[in-house]
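FW: tagging you since you asked about this chain on Friday. Here's the raw sequence from the shared folder, copied in full. Didn't touch anything.
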Amino acid sequence: MGNHKEESGMQDFVKELIDQNQLEGSALGIAKQFLGKGEESLSKDQRRVFQRDVIDQFVTKECTLCGSDIPWEEMIFAYSNGGLCGSCYYVSNKDD
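HL: got it, structure written out here
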């Protein structure tokens, strides 16, 4: 995987998905295993499901407006606001 900060951010993101009841079925079980035992503990099939049902469904790699990278610590926010980074979200909603 990446460095420790990135790995920790990803774990926090997956935990937040679980806490918000975003995952169910096998994706939920695999996410819990990922948190408890690490990515290395996942089988090839589990990694495929984790990628498809967690990463591909919930991760927003870049802002849909400005294209900047979204850090893990903003990922759950970006998912919930339609894919915007914090700056673009603030600018697009400051008149509200």
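FW: The radius of gyration is 14 Å.
HL: agreed, and The CA atoms of residues 18 and 28 lie 7 Å apart.
FW: great, closing this out.
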